[in-house]
Structure formats: C-alpha cells, structure tokens
C-alpha cells in the first residue's frame, strides 16, 4: 500500500501496514546484508563509535544492529513486527553473535521507556523514509529525547532520488538533506557527510551517509 504525502495517516494505520508487509513476506527493502555505506564508514574509514548503548529502529532482520554490536557497544534492534524480531533473533543465533551484545525487541520507537542515560549510538536507514512526512518532526524530537549529549546518530539518507511520478508517494518517501536538518533542528549538528559513499547496486545515487552529534 502507498500513501500520498498530503494524506493524513494515523500511527495505527502505519503499524498495520508493517505488520501486513512482514506477515505477507513483502520486505522488498531487505537487501540481505549490512548496508555498504555503514560497513565502509566503520571498517574502511575507521569511524570511532561512542561506547555505551545503541539502537536501530525499524531494524528488520537486524543486519546493521549485529554489525554495530561489539564489546563496549551493546545494541538494541527495535521493530514493530514480532515476525521481524523473531527473524532477527534467529539470524543472530545462527551467526553466533553474542546475545549480550545485541538484543531484538518489539518496540514502538515513539513510545518506549528509555534507559537511564539514553543511547550513545543510533543508526537510521530505511526508517525515516518509511514514516509519513507528517511524522518527521516527531522523529527528530524523539531522537533528541533518547540520545545522550555527544551521541552519534548515523543516518543513511534514502531515497534522495525518485521517479517524477512517484515523488509524492510512499513509503519510501522522498527525502533531502534539508528534511533531515529541519527534523533534527537545533538538537544535532552534522559532523560527517559522504555523498560518494558505497551503496547497494540498486540504490546508486539514492543514498548519502551522514553522522549527526547530539548537542
């Protein structure tokens, strides 16, 4: 199901949409591996991640949460779908990733209890683009609430390009750097951007990786 950017959509409708996608195995966003841009940022460019806790909202099968998990950085993969949570947990166990480094939970990003001290790392890829444009300010405000000062929000901006006929329909909804700046407001500063980052073959020209620091 697709929506127009001008349509009013309730959070309940969106929750039902993702439940249906998972129950009907319509997960076209799932590329089966860690996003190349994230792997490049950490493994090839040596981006230093803060220590503490991290979160990946809309984690799906959890590739990125498992990749980020390491001694000193305990990750949570959050999703609205129990099917996704179970699939991610199963994949984690198959890969032998320690359960004490990454846990997958059924969570509503906008309504869960934040641990004391908040999160020091967050990764947002196919999450903001999945939200209706009317929810973007709430997305930015929620990240400001859950992240500690100095925390890093790694945002792989996508999709930055869409066919003209699909520009106002989604998910995914078309995004721009300015959309991120408006949503994150004065709570974050952009400290890294790489327009030439590696991408999935089918998304060349549609992705730019960024890192935003919580003020």
From TrEMBL:
Alphabetical list of CDD domains matching this protein: AdoMet_MTases
Biological processes, Gene Ontology terms: methylation
InterPro entries: SAM-dependent_MTases_sf, TPMT
Alphabetical list of SUPFAM superfamilies matching this protein: S-adenosyl-L-methionine-dependent methyltransferases
Assigned keywords, A-Z: Methyltransferase, Phosphoprotein, S-adenosyl-L-methionine, Transferase
Sample GO molecular function, one term: S-adenosylmethionine-dependent methyltransferase activity
PANTHER family: PTHR32183, THIOL METHYLTRANSFERASE 2-RELATED (PTHR32183:SF11)
Protein name: S-adenosyl-L-methionine-dependent methyltransferase
Native source organism of the sequence: Coemansia biformis
Organism lineage string: Eukaryota, Fungi, Fungi incertae sedis, Zoopagomycota, Kickxellomycotina
